[in-house]
Amino acid sequence: MLILTNFIRDIPKELFESMTVDGAGHWRTLYRLVLPLAKPAIVTVGIYEALQVWNGFLFPLVLTGSAEVRVLPYSLFSFQSEHGVNTPAILASVVLSALPVLAAYIVGRRQLVAGLTAGFGK
Is 97 among the domain residues? Predict the structure, then answer.
């Protein structure tokens, strides 16, 4: 929320006023002005939230009890037992689980950097 509100506050008020003068309502202003200009911030927040959900362990541990509905970090935890750790299986699973996050970063890195550096230079 902090990233989005700060980014939207940086949009000049003259653009909102010109949209209002042209007869655009609130929804049209949102779709035609705010969303295209806030695309870097939306991608940044999306990647942050996806990482929070992707790396969640405690919440799924509390809510899920059966092996059929386990999430990825909780399933990685099941590769260890009281007698040992299956290290090759854990390493292979971690690499495979990191691929979607890496792909999302590669696709949205330009917007991510633009969203993180917004407001630093005038």
Answer: yes
Secondary element (H or E) of residue 64 = none
59 domain-assigned: yes
How many domains are contained in the chain? 1
Contact 47, 40 (CB under 8 A): no
d(CA 119, CA 7): 8
Mean pLDDT by 10 residues, the chain (122 residues): 84 88 90 87 84 74 75 76 81 86 80 66 52
Query: Which residues form the domain of 66?
Result: 43-110
| Domain presence at residue 19 | no
Helix, strand, coil distribution of the chain in percent, nearest 5:
75, 0, 25
Q: Measured between alpha carbons, how far is 76 from 61 in angstroms, rounded to an integer?
A: 12
Whether residue 55 lies inside any domain: the answer is: yes
